[in-house]
User: Fold these one by one.
Assistant:
Number 1:
Amino acid sequence: MTFASITFIVFFTLVLVLEGITNVRVVKEKLGNHFYIVRHMILLIASYIFYGWWDWRFCFLILFVTVTAYLAGLLHQNKTVVVMAVCVVLVVLGIFKYYNFFVESFCELFSISSAGTINFILPVGISFYTFQAISYIADVRLGRLQAERSFVNVALYIAFFPQLVAGPIVKASEFLPQLSEDRNVSIRNLETGLQIFMFGLFKKIVLADNLSVYVDEVFRYPTVFSAGTIAMAVVSYAMQIYFDFSGYSDMAIGSAKCLGYDFSRNFNMPYISKNVSEFWKRWHISLSTWLKEYLYISLGGNRKGKIRTYINLMLTMVLGGLWHGANWTFVVWGALHGAALCVHKMFVRTHRKGSAARNILYAAATDIFVCLCWIFFRADNISTALVIIQRMFSFDRGVRHLYSWTIVSLIFMIVCHIKAYRRSASKEFCSGYYAVMDLGKVSSLIIWFVFIGLTIGLAYTGASPFIYFQF
């Protein structure tokens, strides 16, 4: 069950109806002190149905992780218990996601048979909900959050279906307090949430999915295409992964908003970043924040000298790259970003506020670097990535193909960025926005239904799963 499916629409409508019924005054009065428990149980059961739609066996795994986190929270004063709980969660992630990768890499290094591999089915979203479980354990241990006595609340935090399979990674200290508030389905929340959801759906099924056709073909046969076509495919992938993942994040944020819950923004116009450090403040914000708070700072951050700071940055980004997938291409991708962050940190003190022209130049240079790194992220293996880079810079001849959706997507992105820049209160660190309208106005309703029509009419009808589902 994915957000971009009829099944999800039916499922989500039923959840909204059930949650709405609990908010009816008569029902609310009858439920009395059990009001919150009933509401949370509806969402929890719905979340497990949503997750079990892929494979019902995955529900037992997420339940095990939840029980581990819950017990660790109750026993948070015992450091040994907390460390063991975090290790258990990491072992679950390691076995299902990285066991075969490390076994095969070891066997390949020493030229021995890889008979020790196991045919695991990678549970959907395991990277996300294990990180949320660790977030809960760490926040309670560090005193940022009181241990939750309700198992239902902890289970709902880890399994809440809008963000369950592909984020954003919501911190326990941000979500759990909302469960004690009277969050409900309302016309205002529906009006805002549905618009954010549709905006994300448009980015996914119209822009990202149409771009995927071109990107997949060029990356599958890089030696066939010309240097210019390969370069356009690389740029297309940079936009595809942005529209795909930010689109999913928008749909997750919009779905949660419809139910009355608030998630923080996960993307903030990353391709206007003037350096790699700013890029990671704008790209996959929930992950970069998680890595900074729970990994980089735990390693010592910048508190133990320059050399140790650079080592911590590299370790954080390499592990962040590996988090994305069990492949050496992700390790290289993370290492490249780690190296760039180290270089930027070396010269950040000498950097001064520049003119608009200089900022555009910095942003262009950052985008070129990010696009080159995306080659390793997208390629099936390192050798393919190197072939793509070699073909792109050798100016070899081949099939030339100017893809119209690349131009359309680029224009869409530029227009939205200009609109956001004009509305931004701070031009120094421009912030994006959701194009939420007042649907009480006739003009807004006309735009709304036209937008829905365009989304349906221009949608790519082929099967194109969300990129981050594999992580």
Note: Residues 189-275+351-470 form one domain.
Number 2:
Amino acid sequence: MMRAYNFSAGPAAIPTEVLLQAQAELLDYKGTGMSVMEMSHRGGVFMDVAREVERDFRELLNVPANYKVLFLQGGGKGEFSLVPLNLLRGKTRADYVNTGLWSAGAIKEAGKYCEAATIASSEDKKFTYVPPQNAWKPNRDAAFRHICTNETVHGIEYFWTPEIDDDVPLVADMSSHILSRAIDVSKYGCIYAGAQKNIGPSGLTIVIVREDLLGHAHPMTPSVFDYTQQAANGWMLNTPPTFAVYLAGLTFKWLKAQGGLGAMETKSIAKAKMIYDCIDGSDGFYRNDVAVENRSRMNVPFFLRDESLNAKFIEASLAANLAGLKGHKAIGGMRASIYNAISIDAVAALTIFMREFQQRNG
């Protein structure tokens, strides 16, 4: 069987080595005679899995000891509501920077619980840049300040961390680029990420939250989504998505074997450069509208000069074993998502195809 080169934005590619190990252990995990997905989440075997998964994640991101790591459910969209429910702490306002579809979604959901103030936006240029911090208009009485550090649809990424000169905690949705490079977790009050891009299958969400922010969830917050209650119960207040946690753990082992986040960043830079060079060198046949300094290393949207060729491009790419290249319906065009599991060979195959398609149709 030949596996496709999968450029889907999510659920996304999982490392082949991870899938093969999961396949080998599917019927019998370490002599138990059962799959991880069949065993009790409170049994000793899975508790060992859970501890190791959290330990490896903490090691990869160098998570400080005064932060809790929670493996939850609900996805990134769920966290749009769970962040204000957990972190408003009696306040009525939160700050948001709007850099695209996912930021806008977070703002809309937060508006159900508080005044979600947009303190900066790149909507004026169709979300093709990150507003510089000197253009922000923050509120010092805000409960938190929220950013989406990589926008999958519009293909923009923060390559800097906002400097906070007040006591307002910085909150970040890192769903689409977490574990692609090192970050300073201590600069954030809370980080959350859906797993289905760089970590594993959909259904799992990881939350990193500073301990001093716990203990103030809105009384209407469901217990299973209360960070404080989940932290107190080792994120086992309810049955977690056990198989997704297990697969995430295999991915963490794979990342460590690849050389950790430093090695991932080096590969990400190389892969992104290959595609952007192909686009920029196409004499306008392809284009990417994002400011060069904000171009995402994970999600590369691009457009054909002649949009009547879009369907032909997708059909030909599928025939060439290149999957998941159709752009998001919000903006159209094409999009190549090049998460950690995407190899240099896959990106090379894509750029060869793009050049050949241009030659045939230019």
Note: The longest strand covers residues 115-121.
